[in-house]
Amino acid sequence: MKLIKSYSLALYSAEQCTLYNKNEIDKQVDLSPQSSDFIPDALQLVAIQQSLALENWAAESRIVILVPDHWLSISNSILDSSTPPSLMPLAALTYAVESTFSTPEMVWFNYQKKRLEDNRIQLSVFACSEEWSKQLCSPFSSKNASCLIVPVSLWQNIKPRSRRWSTLSRHALSHYQPDHEKQRTCKRLWCCLLVLSVLVHSLAYGYFSSLEQRIHLLLTDRQSLLERQTAWATHQDSNDFVFSVLGLMQELPTSVRLVSFDGGSQQADFQLTLTQEEFAYLFSRWEQDFPHWHWQVFESFQAANSISLPVESNQEVLDVFVSVFEKK
Amino acid sequence: MFLSQFLRKNSASLSAISVSRVCLFVLVQALAWYPVLSEQSADLERHLKRQEQLRVSWQKVQAQSRLLEEKSFLQEDWVTYSVGDKVQGVATAWQIEGRALIKEWQVLLETVQEKVALRLVSATWERGQDGAWYGQLLFDIQEPKRNRAYENWLPTSLKAGRFVEEDWTLVSTMRAGERASALLRHKNSQHWVRQGSWLPMVGLVVDSVAFDHVNLINSDGLQVTLQFREEHRDETSGE
Lengths: 328, 239
Known about the structure:
The structure holds 2 protein chains of 2 kinds. Chain A is an alpha+beta fold.
């Protein structure tokens, strides 16, 4: 399937009308200058058209009709460069009407602008009447083809490579279309708008998704880093038991002597030297303050070192071994 | 006139397209993306910052672990320390052991706490005769955070009892074979003491009993000597 639709070509000459298919166009179109300045009238045109071998025509829906220049009315005029481009179609229409003697609604024309050295513009107008152009197209109109009438000289001026349908339609005869340029610019701008919008949106979305991807990467990275850190931290269990018991030791008054202390996360043992009265007081307070701890007073014997005679028996100095456990 | 009328009349010129209008419309569309993109970008910044913080904190943990292994971490010669288990190449436990006076321990442990983040797991303290303490402490190494609270890992507080010499009187001394004992009077009470006896009222231990004086020592290793006073020389020993 060809993406670019091609067109057929029909070349009128004084004697005949030759039809070329799409693959023949570039090679064989015979554009040798005409032998005569013969301009056919309506009946003669019909005769020429009889020579068309329409049966062989592989019906393309587009056809370009090449017309010898002298079959059309040509006018060349020079305009000032101060003429605004929007008035060009109107100027061309005027010249076309003049040269074909038809009314403005019935004239088909095409104009070409050429800038001259002294900054003036040469306007060339090719014109013919509507009925003439209808007749030129008539053999092909039955096939529902869209046809373009192009003067031969214009065809020859276009490079073979740029003989696209769109280029040719700019060189073909048509009605007065004042808004044609404007419409074209309009279409172009709409296209531009669409393209730019699509571009903007796709760029923005691309940026957005790249950001998202980076965030995703960071999150997975973070995950692995966190795992590593928690693996390092979790082996440690938080337990303040030994610290609390040590705190008790630090708060002992100076009258109590701490001999030894051995504490872990579940159990602490310590040995004190103090008076019985003091011990009773301290122990009762400890049991009150820490009901969730389990106390064991292992041995409480009179310190062999002291042989003092106390005033009261509770002033006796004792060595006390205490074990404290965290209750489960 | 009403808005609908106006729009109907001017629909052609309003919908006319020009280069400036194209630019405007494209710009509006671009700006419409701005809040979304800026939020996403801010999100990314936030994540980057968090990632950086995480990385920095892990680096700190590793640096701390390396510090604890260094031989030059603690200068004191009375202490030895070693690193325990390692997880992920980073140490998790640390142990310290040594024998010194309580004041020296305080300085050491303060320095340690300043430099590294530790949590006490187990502690063993033993008071020696000369007032020095043998300590063996085992710690869990923690993530170094700023503004750590100071923790006191010492076995006692450093407050010393006040020894008022006027309150004490050496009344007499006695020797029975190898054992020497002394009679001390403190305020209204009298106590027979010998070497190793604990005097709770002043927090002192009797270090030695000699013929004419008694040496007392406190938990810091500070020595106090009680001697006979001139006035009481002639007093007889009481029971």
